[in-house]
Design goal:
299 residues, alpha/beta, TIM Barrel, two-stranded antiparallel ribbon, 11 helices, 15% strand, myo-inosose-2 dehydratase activity, Xyl_isomerase-like_TIM-brl, manganese, IolE/XylAMocC-like, EC 4.2.1.44
């Protein structure tokens, strides 16, 4: 059983309204996202593009629903832009999250990503970072980790399909080059599985560096379709590649919960299982995942 005092449960707004695919849930407001998260029994949220950029407005919306912010995606561009540009943007992002009480910044290198390009096959066209690009990225991440530490915060690298760090081999390389005291990991069960890895093995290997957790499962029939038809990441999402824990058929959740428990994980578990809300009602799936986690862990 996971420790209720140390592990908190949240939802990502991408389950309702997709930042990368505006046509998915474009009509849904951030207020509905937050309200339905709270209704389903979650206490935290990550930040989506529709959320107010004004602290006072956002805090009021959160307080009305007894919700808080636990993380917000940050895009790094160390491989394609001047290092200082990413550092400057990170400081603003860090300070905004700090004001909201968040302790973690989840981030990924997006300089050469294809995950937002709907025409490129996710498996055939995924970027391969050079040794020099890995070195540049690692150096930059160590600097961001030090900047986060100034605010008693941590950064967590989010391996992600289409970004150049999606396989375990690529993650291994990056983690070997970064300071474990400064650079943690977002464990994402769905992206590990999508990439062809065993999510349990990824978690077991890096449990001591996991600072934030994303829960989603993968539908095996859709994964086969993505491979056969050479679909892009966004096409895969629209086809239903991801779903919530308790609904998919590829992640060994008992194994995941066991390792999180044994490693004394402390932090947030966030349901981030983007689907088309017109097909998969976000509230229904949030409730389904909440019930599943409660059944398995007592949380």
């Amino acid at each position: 059983m996971l420790n209720k005092d140390k592990v908190k449960l949240g939802c990502a707004p991408i389950n309702w309204t997709n930042d990368d695919l505006p046509e998915l849930g474009g009509e849904l407001t951030y207020q509905q996202c937050l309200s339905e998260m709270a209704l389903a029994g979650f206490t935290g949220s990550e930040i989506g593009n529709k959320y107010p950029k004004d602290l006072k407005t956002l805090k009021k919306a959160l307080d009305l629903r007894n919700m808080c912010i636990c993380n917000a995606w940050f895009s790094c561009f160390f491989t394609t832009k001047d290092e200082q540009e990413t550092i400057d943007e990170f400081i603003k992002h860090r300070d905004f999250l700090h004001e909201l009480g968040a302790k973690v910044v989840g981030l990924a290198e997006c300089g050469r990503t294809i995950h937002g390009n709907e025409s490129l096959s996710i498996f055939e066209k995924a970027p391969k970072l050079t040794d020099e690009e890995f070195e540049t990225l690692a150096k930059g991440l160590n600097k961001l980790g030090a900047l986060a530490k100034e605010k008693d915060m941590k950064i967590a690298y989010h391996y992600h399909m289409g970004t150049g760090v999606q396989s375990l081999k690529e993650l291994d390389k990056l983690m070997e080059m970064t300071d474990p005291e400064l650079v943690g990991i977002v464990f994402d069960a769905g992206h590990a599985t999508f990439a062809g890895e065993n999510a349990v093995e990824v978690l077991r290997k890096y449990a001591n560096r996991v600072k934030h957790v994303h829960f989603k499962d993968v539908r095996s029939n859709i994964l086969e379709k993505v491979k056969k038809e050479k679909l892009s990441f966004l096409q895969a999402v629209k086809a239903g590649i991801f779903t919530v824990p308790g609904d998919g058929d590829m992640v060994d959740w008992d194994g995941v919960f066991k390792i999180l428990d044994e490693s004394n994980y402390e932090g947030w578990i966030v349901i981030e299982a983007e689907q088309d809300p017109a097909i998969a009602d976000p509230l229904e799936y949030a409730q389904k995942s909440r019930a599943f986690i409660n059944e398995k862990t007592g949380l």
